[in-house]
Design goal:
Elements: E1 5-10, E2 16-21, E3 28-32, E4 41-43, E5 49-51, H1 54-75
Antiparallel strand pairs: 1-2, 2-3, 4-5
Length: about 80
């Protein structure tokens, strides 16, 4: 199986969505950050299932924190 990739999408209302790029079919599976939790199973349309790990979510949270800091500095 190829590597699964994660990204973050933020809408106009500052709501974050976790994007899980399937390592097999390259589909983007969207999960609201409010529903993302360790051990959550994400099933891609191609049938592959992914389990979120705590480390995955820590990386995403770190990126969100960095974005928040950047935005605060930008507004100054």
């Amino acid at each position: 199986m190829k590597e699964t990739k994660f990204d973050i999408e933020i809408d106009n209302n500052s709501k974050a969505t976790l994007l899980v790029l399937c390592g097999e079919c390259k589909r983007k599976n969207k999960i609201p950050m409010s529903q993302a939790s360790p051990n959550k199973i994400i099933k891609c349309g191609c049938g592959i299932e992914y389990q979120l790990r705590g480390d995955d979510l820590k990386k995403v949270q770190k990126e969100l924190d960095n974005l928040n800091r950047t935005l605060k500095n930008f507004v100054k």
